[in-house]
Amino acid sequence: MKQTQHVRIGYMPLTDSLPLVVAQQAGYFADEGLEVELQPEWSWASLRDRLLVGQVNAAPMLAPMLLGTSLGLGCIKKPLATAFSMGVNGNGVTVSPMLYHGLCALAPGPSPQDMAVALNKLVAARASAGDAPLVLAVVFPFSCHAYQLRHWLAVAGLDPDHDVKLVVLPPSQMVDHLRLGHIDGFCVGEPWNSLAALTGAGHCILSGYQIWENAPEKVLAVTREWAAAHPDAHRALLRALYRAAAHADERLQECLEWLAHPAWLGVPAEVIGAPFSQRLPGGLTGQPFPRHHFHVFSAYQANFPWRSDAEFLLGEMQRWRQGRIEEKSTFAAQCYRTDLYRDAVGDLTNLPEVDHKPAERHAGQWRLPGDPAPVELGPDRLLQVE
């Protein structure tokens, strides 16, 4: 009989923590011989610090944060690793009603590029009038949220470090700060864009998908020390989460009901489910975002820890002068353990034959050679200046 292993997992209460909830509620942790204690946290820095000192054994973490922590950027240096991506997509850019109306008045059309043109004009007008710069919030400096927002600002011809003021706030506090007028907008994961939109606190003008299609988000982080000392528990954790992510995609509405419970997220199910049922009004027209703009938990190889994603994010760190590393490929391979993922779930799914996606971007679905069959992937373009 397989011995039960105890694992402590820290997590942020967000929609993309759903695979953890499913693994616990549907019994996948127990089925893989794990007794899991899930511990909520309320800021990314405190979650990271608890992982570093061993108060938790694993935690879904912002992918760039894992890389930054392993480099010692903004914190003590601790080598971390991931062998599992929690999914793709899920972010949005939400602005205050005042900023929304300003963009509506200045935008030549409804596209993300049109909104970028309007934002440039609005920022220039504020500067000419001697007004304070717009204040925009992200969840952490090393995050896909920050890089998506920075990229859209760059498309707008703005310097994110000089033309606006970027601040860091915990995800769950974003809506309150927007409502109180402390910030003019934010880029955050769900359900906070939906909560702002459905309560009148703000308008979700962009999905993260419109900036980077099927972008990676959180990864399951462990210290390399723990992974080496507990290979069986780590492997069981990867299997349980893979099965849970597939379950979440297949039975989404049922799983979102679990997530809405006060013990997990404590946000009404209709708010959590809004982007999945095309009830989240978006852009300048209020046209609901398509379902595929938000969370994908398993499809399109969403759980594979692509080393090309790690290398891209390291490039973003360098682009925004946060840090520099010469050997991106070597460092990415140390942090993104595709070998451990392949070993854990190879009997459950098709696996790509390579660890890197090709450099070219794709406008539609595409394939890579896989074992035992080809793997399906989704669009992966970046927003460009028109």
From TrEMBL:
Keywords: Cell inner membrane, Cell membrane, Membrane, Transport. It comes from the Bacteria. Residues 351-386 are annotated as: Disordered. InterPro entries: NrtA/CpmA_ABC-bd_dom. Transmembrane segments: none annotated. It is found in: Endomembrane system. CDD domains: PBP2_NrtA_CpmA_like (cd13553). Residues 353-363 have a biased composition (Basic and acidic residues). Gene3D superfamilies: Periplasmic binding protein-like II (3.40.190.10). One of its GO terms (cellular component) is endomembrane system. Its main location: membrane. This is ABC transporter substrate-binding protein. It comes from Alloalcanivorax xenomutans.
